[in-house]
Amino acid sequence: MNMALTGKQERFCLAYLETGNASEAYRRVYNANKMKATTITKRASELLQDGDITGRLDELRRPAVELARRYTVEAVEKIIAIMNKEDAPASAQLAASCEILDRGHGKAPATVEGNVKHDHEHHHVHEPLSETARWIEGILRDTEKGDGHGHGPGNTNH
User: Fold this and answer.
1) What is the pLDDT of residues 58-80, one digit of tens each?
2) What is the pLDDT of residues 130-154, one digit of tens each?
3) CB pairs under 8 A, 24+ apart, for 141-146?
4) Which residues are CB-neighbours of 53 under 8 A, at least 6 positions away?
5) Contact (Cβ atoms closer than 8 angstroms) between residue 121 and residue 36
6) What's the pTM value of the predicted model, to 2 decimals?
7) Rounded Cα–Cα distance for residues 108 and 99 (Å)
8) What's the helix, strand, coil split of the chain in %, to 5?
9) Where in the chain do CATH 1.10.10 domains reside?
């Protein structure tokens, strides 16, 4: 039986989903100013091993996963259209082509685990998850407003 998470554990889950980086999520939630980077990494990794936390992360991801699955065909069709659009910038065509190849050949989605070494003072990790999360948030906001239409990435018809 899952126990309720503490407020900090819940905030850790939300920060982890936003950043895609467990150490960064730990820094945002816990008082880590005087901790060594290795200690932060260890503690963040320990949180990701907690069954209650992994269960909550799965629960928080579920709507996004269901939404993505619901619009998979439309998203792939849009990517193909961009790839084949003659007047599209070459960079957009290339990005669309790479996306099709990556997914078609089973490339796993990028993830960042809590044991990734990260020099917090000199380098900020920006994970694609943040952009995707903002995109999904926009779709959910449009749906709540009554739009109800699934618009994939790059669609400006919101």
Assistant:
1) 999 998 888 888 888 888 888 88
2) 555 555 555 556 655 654 444 444 4
3) none
4) 5, 9, 12, 13, 47
5) no
6) 0.51
7) 12
8) 65, 0, 35
9) 1-61
Q: Residues 6 or more apart from 69 whose CB is under 8 A from it?
A: none
Q: Which numeric CATH code is attached to 1-61?
A: 1.10.10
**Kind and range of the H or E run holding 41:** helix 37-49
Cβ distance 47 to 22 under 8 Å?
yes
- Compute CA distances 49 → 52, 86, 123, whole Å: 9, 48, 26
